[in-house]
Amino acid sequence: MLVLALSKKKAFSWSTPLTLPFAMLAAWAAVGFFFALDRPNTVHDIVSHLLKYYAVYFLAVQFYPSQKGFDTLARIIVASTALFSIGAIVYFYAVLGHAFSERLGHSGSYSFSEMSTNYMCFATVFAAVLAFNLLLKEKRARVRASARVLLVAALASVLAATLLTQTRGALIALAAGIVVLFLSDRRRLIAALAGLGVFVMVLFASPESAARFSPQGILGNERISMILMYLEMVQERPVAGIGFGMEIPQQQDYMKQYYDRVPERYRDSGFHVSPHNFYLDVLVRLGVVGFFLYLAIALIAFQMALQAMRGCGGDARCMFAAWAALLIQAFFADASFGTPAIVFYLHLAMITILWRASQEEKATPFPAGGVA
């Protein structure tokens, strides 16, 4: 990325509304080094789980700089996620022989090691929203039926993968994304939600799946214990946090002091140490300052999507919906590393691409003699 920026062969611009909050977040993470409980891990994670994702953002904006580039990137994301979804479903259920009542990628005897069940939904929900939008565009453009059939198949595969994971946060986020995307089209909104409802009813026909979504299954969830445990940590270091490094909260020996403070009736017998909540994770590692910097990034991205609607209406509405869905998912899962973090910065990159396209369109002067 730096080579591209310094090279004169290809124009490179750092100028986006997100550059300053990105820089402030990186600076605050660096300042946190002096307060960090694990300084070597903090340095490692700033490079591996912040600066590298900044590179993903700027490279995506650089290489897909137009609305046409946005379409290309959207198709790549939909196609690759659909292929992964098909492969995961076939392998887990057909090859390994698991029942469809078991969560995709996670059972008592086997779990995907490279892709957590909770994390894969960040990609599948994003791909589903993008696929819905591409279908709408292709219908308006009267694209040949064969191309639309492929898109429908891709959409079906990512929806199936999302639902088969039985991840509560993903289902809520998917429904919210659909509502935002089709808010101005009641007929399509009702059809999409009805289709989702049918999928859900079929999926939850088994007692195991139904129990997972029952009030007892939700209120008795281990996440309550994890939330209370992490809030104890926040109270000790509210401003600066424990440092950007992610290893300390994964150590049960260190976390036991906070686990013991959780009221006994809420304690998780399995003693899970992951927060399963992006916002709590940020509060613990970067304190309230880091939390508000991430909040600023989220709000600026919403503002950029709204501004882009003037020139890139449907695509910008799609990204507004996708961004809202991701932020909802982040209440139920970690999003600071791996697939969720890459998806996080791809959202921001695609919003930036549309924002730039709309700004360039607004700045283009009318031809002499009036509007063409």
Task: Please sum up the structure shown.
With 372 residues, the protein is mainly alpha-helical. The chain contains 15 helices and no strands.
Q: Please, could you describe this protein's structure?
A:
69% of the residues lie in helices and 0% in strands. The chain has 15 helices and no strands. The longest helix is centred in the last third of the chain and has 31 residues, at 278-308. With 372 residues, the protein is mainly α. It starts with a helix and ends in a 9-residue tail after the last helix.
Defining key terms:
372 residues; disordered C terminus
Count every helix, treating DSSP H or I runs of 4 or more residues as helices.
Answer: 15
Mean pLDDT: 86
| Order of secondary-structure elements | HHHHHHHHHHHHHHH
Distance linking N and C termini: 39 Å
Shape, principal axes of CA atoms = globular
In what range is the share of β-strand residues? Answer: under 5%
- Give start-end ranges of low-pLDDT stretches: 366-372
Major sheet characteristics: none
- Bin the helical content: 55-70%
Instruction: Please give the radius of gyration in angstroms.
Output: 22 Å
Question: Structural class of the secondary elements?
Answer: mainly alpha
Number of strands: 0
